[in-house]
Amino acid sequence: MSDDARVTVYCPAGEITGTSDGQVTNFRSIPYSHIPGDFFDAQRLPNTPQEPIDATVHRPESIALSITTPHDSRPLADLPVIVYIHGGRFENGTHGDRRADGAPNARAKVITVHIGYRVKLAGFAQFHNDEPHRYRGIDDCQLGLEWVQRNIESFGGDPTNVTLVGQSAGATTALWLSRRDHYRGCFRRVMAMSPCFPRDSFQHRKGSLRTVLGKPVTRASLTKLAAKNPRLLERGYSRFRTWHGLDMALGPTPLDGAEMTDLPLWMTSTREEFYHLPGGRTLDDRGWGPRAARFLAKRMGLSGSVSAWIAAAQKMDPERVVGRLIGDASNRRWVSQAAEQSLGPVWMSEYVRDATPALHCVEIPYVFGLEPGISHEQLLRFAHGREPLWPRYTANTGRQVCRTNLDSGTTEIVSDPLKMVREAFGPN
């Protein structure tokens, strides 16, 4: 690598060196906190410059953040900032999600930050002395956002114009960070793409984790187990996840829109979400969809008329009733609830495709400009602080939604596409 490809920024955190291709500059895997142990709260780094940071290489195993800027970005340029939190069921993912690469944003003079956080039990197990509603994985993201506030001006970003974007588990985290007991003014608006909240709390599931581990679920016990027998800990978590296989095994809950701030909120979902999961496909392919959906509905959180939901699902796609139930129970119900309960202005999008289902995660590269279409333009507009070009989502105006066809790039305004979800699942 030539010296010309290296770019160094001097910021309150210290000297940080990344790489540039002449158009876009990347600073990869920058540490933003000190983590004294997997199951302990992260600590804010000192307010004095640290040792020079080599941010030329992505280190996916680290809890860190990455920044993508225009090559010609300069301190105090006041460029809009998008902070992205990855998904992965609170089990997987890193701060280097290539589907949300920041290069197209940088070419449009918008800075992108990817924040990584602890997942699985390290990030989301709760212990007896933890504060209610707090999770280490989410507090990691909070520290990352605070690092951005202190340092992003040196990279050319505007700390007063930060848009928080999350997908799946990352969308859940973004909404949780918008709670009044968490919000610290580190972002001005939120885009939440297909959030996924567990239907039950970790406290109600702690007994099943204790059973599969054969150990107490305490900070000291899990710390000792992680040090002495990490394979046993991983195997125990795998069994715990299987035990709660019809739901998110981990994550913050419950969603309560009344606890959120009144920030501008853009909620999105894909129309088919989880058509592709093997278990659902098997039931649907064998023609057991309606019968299986009736059996599973209550266990998956459906509280309204099961018959009415099945009828609506069959009308949309008679071949994939269980696949639709999985997506509605896992994601679309939370999109609907957050939009209904939010105290601030809300807009909603639904992503569809022509010949193939619009599955969970399919929209990410379109939204971030790696695939062509209107979705990236919509994100850039939102990041500049301008309202989307379609009506707000309100009951009084018919719950209008922008439906975007990812294949054709066309959009249309439709009324209340999540009505069947709202009526079937209702509030949590």
From TrEMBL:
GO terms for molecular function: hydrolase activity. InterPro entries: AB_hydrolase_fold, CarbesteraseB, Carboxylesterase_B_AS. Its EC number is 3.1.1.-. The keyword Hydrolase applies. It comes from the Bacteria. Pfam families: COesterase (PF00135). This is Carboxylic ester hydrolase.
